[in-house]
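COMPLEX REQUEST
Ligand: heme C
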Amino acid sequence: MHPVLKTMKKLLTIFSILFFVVACTKVVMPVATENDAKRASEKWPNTTLADLTQGKSLYEQHCAGCHKLYKPDSHNEAQWNKIVPPMANKAKIDSEKENLILKYLVTMSASRN
Ligand code: HEC
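STATUS: Structure written out below.
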């Protein structure tokens, strides 16, 4: 085989593997539903689906800078209550955003338990 072709083939293999690895490790966060909002509002009155959806996007926006995003069901409610405040500090977000993120994570963690 022509050496240039050989190199091309090697590169193609490397890129395919890289693509596969990236595609497989992308963590998809669960999307909140009306049912989740109902459960959430039993704990925090007047919590809406929009709040949970906003919490999800704030989480994705502010918490992925230093490490991978942890799935909501990776920790339970007590753990999230302990983890989120210092992490919100690290992420330099205000308490309103922190609360929305916490509600999203706690609600969606319980949906799996
Ligand atoms: C400035 C960097 C930074 C940002 C931004 C950040 N984190 Fe972290 N996070 C860390 C570091 C460093 C660790 C590991 C050491 C530790 O636990 O303090 C960590 C660990 C964690 C863990 C694992 C803790 C455990 O004990 O299992 C979770 C969950 C987590 N972060 C959630 C979040 C959330 C939620 C946000 C957004 C509000 C966030 N992080 C934003 C730096 C960051």
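REMARKS: The radius of gyration is 20 Å. Residues 34 and 49 are 6 Å apart (CA to CA).
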